[in-house]
Structure formats: C-alpha cells, structure tokens
From TrEMBL:
Annotated metabolic or biological route of this protein: Isoprenoid biosynthesis; isopentenyl diphosphate biosynthesis via DXP pathway; isopentenyl diphosphate from 1-deoxy-D-xylulose 5-phosphate: step 3/6
Family: Belongs to the GHMP kinase family. IspE subfamily.
GHMP kinase N-terminal domain ranges (all copies): 73-151
Record's catalysed reaction(s): 4-CDP-2-C-methyl-D-erythritol + ATP = 4-CDP-2-C-methyl-D-erythritol 2-phosphate + ADP + H(+)
Pfam families: GHMP_kinases_C, GHMP_kinases_N
Cited function: Catalyzes the phosphorylation of the position 2 hydroxy group of 4-diphosphocytidyl-2C-methyl-D-erythritol.
Protein name per the record: 4-diphosphocytidyl-2-C-methyl-D-erythritol kinase
Residues that coordinate or bind ATP: P101, V102, A103, G104, G105, M106, A107, G108, G109, S110, A111
Keyword Membrane: no
Organism (species): Speluncibacter jeojiensis
Gene3D superfamilies registered for this protein in UniProt: 3.30.230.10, GHMP kinase, C-terminal domain (3.30.70.890)
Sorted UniProt keywords: ATP-binding, Isoprene biosynthesis, Kinase, Nucleotide-binding, Transferase
Amino acid sequence: MLSVVPDPVVVTVPAKVNLHLAVGDLRDDGYHELSTVFQALSLSDEVSVVPADTLTVQVQGEGAQFVPTDNRNLVWRAAEAVADRAGREPAVKISVRKGIPVAGGMAGGSADAAATLLALDHLWGLELDRATLHELAADLGSDVPFALHGGTAVGSGRGEHLLPVLARDTFHWVLALAKGGLSTPKVFAELDRLRAEGRPPRAGTPDALMQALAAGDAATLAPLLVNDLQPAALSLMPELRRTLRAGEAAGALAGIVSGSGPTCAFLCADEQSAIQVGAELAGVGVCRTVRVAAGPVPGARLADIEEGR
Ligand SMILES: C[C@](O)(CO)[C@H](O)COP(=O)(O)OP(=O)(O)OC[C@H]1O[C@@H](n2ccc(N)nc2=O)[C@H](O)[C@@H]1O
Ligand SMILES: Nc1ncnc2c1ncn2[C@@H]1O[C@H](COP(=O)(O)OP(=O)(O)OP(=O)(O)O)[C@@H](O)[C@H]1O
C-alpha cells in the first residue's frame, strides 16, 4: 500500500525593530508598561508543520545551535496552546528555519510562535478568528501578537495591545548582528538597576515619530528613533557603542539598539545607501555579520508553496 506524505504547511514570519520604545515602571506582574512603535522587517524565519505521531521540533539556520528543541521552545508551547484550544493532541513535526538572529532583540522566538499558531490553524482547518489568534499569541509572549500583525503598529500594555500605524513608503535598514546574545529579562532588570541609580532619560510620546512615518520621511524619522532599553543593553555589552558609532560614520542616518539588543539597527536614506553602509560596516569588524532589510512588511503569512518552491 502506498503511504501518502502530506504537504507541509509553511509560514514565513518577519523580525521586528522598535522605532520608539518607552519603558514605564515595573508592574506587580513582573512586566514593564510599554509604549512602543514596532516595524516588521524583511528578515524572516520560516516555520513548517506536518502531521506526525508526536510533537517534535527541529531548528536549522542562523544560530540554530542555541535554540532548544523541547518545551522551552516557544513553537512547542504555541502548538500545545492551539491543540488545547482545538481539543486535540499536538501531533505535529515543526521545522523552523532561522533567518532572524537568536536572542538578538528582533523577536525571533516570538515570530516562530506566531507562525506556528497560523500554520496549525491552517493544517487543522480550525479557522480561528483574528481575536482568538491574538489572544493565544499574547499568552505566549509580549512580542508574539505583533509578529502576527506585521506592518507598523503602536504597542501598549506589555506590548500586546496593538493599533496599526500609517507608514508611507519603505524604510531601508542595515542590521548589525552581534557576536553574542542578550537575555530580555536581564536587560529589563539592568534598566531597573540603572534607574534606581537615577541615570537614564525616559522617552516621551511618539507623536512626531508617527508624523515622520506617515510622511515616509527617513531623514525626519532618524533623530526621533528612541529606545529606553538602549542604555541597559550598552551597560551589559559596552562594545555596542563602537558598532553604533561605526554605522553612523558609514553614512547611516541614525543607529539604535533593536529592542533588548544586541542587534543594532541603522536607518538609511535609501536602498543604495543601505547597501553601502552594510558593506562598510561589514568591513570594520564591529559585529558578527550584517544584513540589509526593508520595512514595513506583512506579519506571519502562509508561503505560496506553488510559487515559492
Ligand atoms: C523588548 C521587547 O522585544 C520590545 O518589543 C519586548 O518587550 C520583549 O518581549 P518578549 O521577548 O516577548 O518578552 P516576554 O517573553 O513577554 O517576557 C520576557 C521577560 O521580559 C521582561 N519584560 C517583557 C515585556 C515587558 N513589557 N516588560 C518586561 O519586563 C520580563 O522580565 C519578562 O519575564
Ligand atoms: N523558536 C525560537 N527561536 C529562537 N529562540 C528561541 C526559540 N524558542 C525559544 N528560544 C529561546 O529564547 C531565547 C531568546 O530568543 P529570541 O531569538 O526570541 O530573542 P529575542 O529576539 O531577543 O527576543 P525579543 O526581541 O522578543 O525579546 C533564546 O536564547 C532561546 O533559548
């Protein structure tokens, strides 16, 4: 008898950068109140799911050796959450191809969790509505709802309440990937420590930044990029100061630590400039590797298998 191997469901999902990240005080639940503007970038992971006897996870690509393949992986927890909602066993093999740097402040694990929600919804024909997917996403992590959403959005609460933002045209970025990673909770804790000493300033409101986004004006946007976590990331990884200086010296309009870091994101005037800045930055040895990316791009979406492979 012929056994038919089903086609995998494949979802691609973008990385994010926080254009504005204002961190409020520590809440009783251990999270900080945030006011942030996310943008999804053209650096992506791919998650494939296929029916199997039991739940397994495999990871390949950029930094795969640092990613757990058991229930510490967010995709494992995402699969359990969808299966639980559907009243079935999470009997699937999940394959993750990483393009987003691991522990890089670009929400790679969150992206994979969002992709898994969408892939299993499709594989199992659940047709969960957006609100249900969003609720499952928020339970998995603060950045997971945005990975589903994509584009450019304002996030509040611990980052999970989203409102879309109008962004005209495409912005061009260079990403400097660092040699190591930074743990998100450690960076938040370092900010609390620095604040207890009374040092770092706090970001204001993102009103002017949203106007620059709506106008599609990179030169106006550049000086408005702000990240309250940057002093904490720099305190834990002082060498990032050199990376930031090198990107600006190479011709970027502005550089910022992405989220909890250590990836540094440089906004450039146009695509040509991004390619030049990327090439120059790669040559000066201040980071592990360099990527050129554009944003905004859509959130997690089913790959077009006919055309894509
Ligand atoms: C830094 C950002 O990437 C900015 O978008 C996010 O705030 C981090 O989101 P994430 O990685 O999805 O974080 P979660 O998995 O929800 O939380 C991990 C840990 O980060 C800290 N955390 C996270 C989000 C938040 N608003 N306040 C926090 O203090 C907490 O210690 C929490 O236990
Ligand atoms: N699917 C996954 N991909 C990457 N890391 C994962 C995944 N699942 C769990 N992890 C663990 O989570 C840690 C943080 O990884 P991740 O790449 O999500 O960091 P990040 O991009 O800094 O996150 P964020 O920007 O959301 O704070 C890793 O060190 C890894 O051990």
